[in-house]
Each structure stands twice: as C-alpha cells, then as structure tokens.
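Saturday, quiet lab. Running sequence design on the structure tokens for the scaffold JK sent over.
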C-alpha cells in the first residue's frame, strides 16, 4: 500500500495557505510518487488544526503548513502544545508582502484617500483579513497607530472568505499577505492601496 502524507492547513479552503499546500502536495505526489491529502482544520486563529497535528503520531505522515500565527498564538493565549518542542520544522516555503486592497469600484485610489476617509469617519471603516491574532491584524494595528485613524478589524477564518466579502462590497478595505492580490489588480477587480511595512 502506498504511503499517504497528510498536510493539515489550519485555515479554510481557497485561501493562500490552502493553495500553497495544494501546489506543494501536487509536486510531492508527482516527483515522489506519494499519495497526498490536504485537510483543512480552520478555527481559533489556527489553533484547532495546529493542536490536531501536535497530537498526531510522529511518523512523518502528518505535516502542518503554518502561518505567522504559529509564533503569535503562544503570546496571546494558553495552548495545549509547545510550538518549540511539539513540532520539527522542515522547510521555509514562501514570503509574501502585506498590502491593503479595496474593491476597484471603491472611491479610494491611494492610501492617503483611505486615511482621509477614516479620519473623517472614525470607527466607520472596516478592514477584513484573516484573524484574530494574526500578523495581518498586528500590521493593521500598527498602521492605525501610525496613521492616527480609528478603523475596525473584521476577522475571517481564511483568505477565501475575505475575497468573497471584499468582491461584494464597495468600500471595505482588506489586508492580505498574498502576491496574487497584486496580480488581480491588473484585472481591475481590486486596487492596491499600499504595502504595509512588516
């Protein structure tokens, strides 16, 4: 019987992490002849899926694709695993910028437009992204302080749900960590406002 390797993604299907896992699984299956399975276990800022992998048999057949939340979570909540001792790192996959995007029908064309609107409507504008307690939310909080604006963070369990929400709303900005949003800019579906320093 062929060996099956499971990659657990602690976010909902269709987002950047899920797509990365599926591309990785396809390449491993093609080059190594292994059976690959992707299992999405979203929830609790990646903790549900991460905890499931921490309890898996240490036989190399269950892998976890992590995001920066992996190292953030121990600082903001009690965990049933130790990120430093419960896992063994294998490889570094990708690095992506954090950008703020709006639907192309939005009136905001620059970061200055968005900041001006946020200052004129304190607490009214929202920013949708994966969360809570993710690198994106931390970057958003830093942005709010630097720009001296009051905006509301709206957490989602994965990038795909953020996309669906954003494409259906005219003026709601979003913050994501994936290069494909920049490519979508060229299709005029969304407008890239600015990169957020990390």
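Result came back. Writing it out in full:
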């Amino acid at each position: 019987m062929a060996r099956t390797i499971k990659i657990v993604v602690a976010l909902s299907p269709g987002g950047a992490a899920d797509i990365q896992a599926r591309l990785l699984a396809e390449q491993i299956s093609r080059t190594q002849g292994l059976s690959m399975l992707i299992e999405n276990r979203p929830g609790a800022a990646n903790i549900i899926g991460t905890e499931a992998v921490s309890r898996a048999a240490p036989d190399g057949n269950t892998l976890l694709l992590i995001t920066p939340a992996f190292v953030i979570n121990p600082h903001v909540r009690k965990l049933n695993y130790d990120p430093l001792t419960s896992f063994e790192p294998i490889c570094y996959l990708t690095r992506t910028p954090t950008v703020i995007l709006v639907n192309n029908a939005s009136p905001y064309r620059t970061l200055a437009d968005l900041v001006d609107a946020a200052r004129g409507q304190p607490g009214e504008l929202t920013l949708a992204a994966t969360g809570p307690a993710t690198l994106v939310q931390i970057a958003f909080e830093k942005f709010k302080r630097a720009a001296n604006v009051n905006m509301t963070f709206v957490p989602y369990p994965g990038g795909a749900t953020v996309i669906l929400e954003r494409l259906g709303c005219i003026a709601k900005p979003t913050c994501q960590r994936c290069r494909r949003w920049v490519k979508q800019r060229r299709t005029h579906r969304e407008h890239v406002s600015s990169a957020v320093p990390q």
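Notes for JK: The radius of gyration is 18 Å. The longest strand covers residues 4-9. Ask whether to fix the surface positions before the next round.
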